[in-house]
Specification:
Protein name: Acetone carboxylase
Strand content: 15-25%
Helix content: 10-25%
Order of helices and strands: EEHE
Number of helices: 1
Strand order of the largest sheet: 2-1-3
Radius of gyration: 12 Å
Organism: Agrococcus baldri
Shape: globular
Structural class: alpha+beta
Bound molecules: zinc ion
Largest sheet: 3 strands, antiparallel
């Protein structure tokens, strides 16, 4: 994990500059192949709302600690 400061990655939520603590991995099945994974950074506050926004569109979503990677999002 990064130790804060200039190396930290900001949350992907619009208008949020908090440091990301989580990673939201997702895929749009209509345009992405099964082995494609998109990743958003998310702070504590926005982790659930970002994941829910994606799920509401029918996209598969996996939430992990920031810095972890996933092979695929089923
Ligand atoms: Zn945020």
């Amino acid at each position: 994990m990064l130790d804060g400061g200039q190396g930290a990655t900001p949350c992907s939520a619009s208008g949020c500059s908090a440091d990301a603590a989580h990673a939201v991995h997702w895929r749009n099945p209509r345009i992405h192949s099964a082995d494609r994974v998109k990743t958003w950074a998310a702070c504590d506050e926005h982790r659930d709302s970002l994941a829910e926004w994606l799920r509401s569109r029918g996209f598969p979503v996996i939430v992990t600690a920031f810095g972890e990677t996933v092979e695929r999002v089923a």
